[in-house]
Amino acid sequence: MNPYAASTAAYQEQAVMTATPGQLVVMLYDGAIRFLRQADAAMGEQAVAHSHDRLNRAEAIIDELLSTLDMSHGAIPENLEGIYVFWKKLLWEVRLERDREKLAVLIRQVANLREAWAQIAQSA
């Protein structure tokens, strides 16, 4: 590993270790958005295997978001569960149909919810 990569990895690890729960959620959203955008670029280049890998990584993040929901808190986690399940369905359709328009819709939705989480994390 080159020195730049090592220092970047150390910085990222430190950021995760010192983040609040809200900031961690925002980081997960950032990762999902990054992978979805990379999948879109790969689809544009007809790089099917790479796009599937990126979509799988985004789906793994959505799975993590789903698994961390505390359903004892009422309507909000229930609504988030519905959103995340819808996103997984949309990802499946994007993979199956290679539909970049659906992927663009998904990216916008994830980005919008990411902004809401960022505001929550900032005010906490």
TrEMBL record:
Localization (cell): Cytoplasm, Cytosol
> Please, which domain of life does this record's source organism belong to?
Bacteria
Q: Which GO terms describe its biological process?
A: bacterial-type flagellum assembly; bacterial-type flagellum-dependent cell motility
Q: Key word Phosphoprotein present in the record? A: no
- InterPro entries (UniProt xref): FliS (IPR003713), FliS_sf (IPR036584)
UniProt keyword list: Bacterial flagellum biogenesis, Cell projection, Chaperone, Cilium, Cytoplasm, Flagellum
One cellular component term from this protein's GO annotations in UniProt: cytosol
What family is this protein classified in? Answer: Belongs to the FliS family.
State the name under which the record lists this protein.
Flagellar secretion chaperone FliS
Species of origin: Capillimicrobium parvum
Taxonomic lineage of the native organism: Bacteria, Bacillati, Actinomycetota, Thermoleophilia, Solirubrobacterales
